[in-house]
Amino acid sequence: MEKVPPRTYEIQAGYILGFENLQSWVDWADEAIVAGFDSQSLRILAGLQQPYDDLEIHRLSTKAFIELNIVPLKVESCISYYITTILRQTLDGKLTQKQTLLKLMQLYLATHHEKSLKDFYLLYHAASDLETSKDQWYWKGANRGNIAKIIDDYFQDWLKNHGQNVPA
């Protein structure tokens, strides 16, 4: 895969899944320019101001991908790419476990309880319960003393077994 601007696949996957708004595309274009990428459509996209037009953003982002030789994600790959980028950000310290679990719990609900995402939902509720109580009933063996390690281990195992080769 060609070198791509930072967060390209995160934004694309999040937008397709309904978790990123139009502002995310404008921010992505600005970040791409700062990172040294350049194209006419990328510059126009970075310069847009609200209110945004969905069709214009789609046209400009599609054109920018072509101009920058970026291969777009296939729709069926979006969930695993989105999860991969979110988990990497967490393990790199850019997101907290709580922020990550909230995003992935929302993804579980938005996908009408996609079975492969259920553990994120359960971990979210186990951790939430343990913030205010010493007991939780979502994750066997989890308690206040070990929930952070359980979550971290789960994230690392998920990336090892399901993670996509997403540029950082």
N-to-C CA distance: 13 Å
Label the structural class.
mainly alpha
The description of the largest β-sheet is: none
- When the domains are counted, the total is 2
The amount of beta strand, in percent, is: under 5%
Number of strands: 0
Principal-axis shape equals: elongated
Average pLDDT figure: 91
Helix content: 55-70%
- Please work out how many helical segments DSSP would assign: 8
Rg measurement, Å? 18 Å
| Uncertain parts | none
Oligomer: single chain
SSE string, helices as H and strands as E: HHHHHHHH
Overview of the structural elements:
With 168 residues, the chain is an all-alpha fold. The chain folds into two domains: 8-67, no CATH class; 82-162, no CATH class. The protein is 62% helix and 0% strand. The protein contains eight helices and no strands. It has helices spanning 8-17, 22-34, 40-47, 54-67, 78-91, 97-110, 118-132, 147-162. Helix 3 runs antiparallel to helix 4 (54-67). The longest helix has 16 residues, at 147-162.
Question: What's a quick, concise take on this entry?
Answer:
The chain has 168 residues and is an all-alpha fold. It is 62% helix and 0% strand.
